[in-house]
Design brief:
Blueprint (H helix, E strand, L loop, with lengths): L2 H28 L3 H22 L4 H12 L1
Helix pairs in contact: 1-2, 1-3
């Protein structure tokens, strides 16, 4: 993998891992149910997955990203 692909994987992992507590905090602050927070996480991760073909030109970085997030 190239350096730019590693950086993109790192950025995506960082955004997703920071997004989870942010969504939880926003849901708690707004008084939303845990179900709303859970569905919001699904929307955020789904939007990220939809963008992957525009971010990466080949499948290897997507597999690395999948492995890293699955292990986490």
């Amino acid at each position: 993998m190239t350096t730019s692909e590693w950086l993109a994987v790192l950025e995506i992992v960082t955004v997703l891992l920071l997004g989870l507590p942010l969504i939880r905090a926003l849901a708690m602050r707004a008084g939303a149910s845990p179900e709303v927070a859970r569905k919001s996480v699904h929307v955020a991760t789904g939007c990220t997955c939809v963008a992957l073909p525009w971010i990466f030109e080949r499948p290897l970085p997507v597999w690395v990203l999948t492995g890293v997030l699955t292990i986490w």
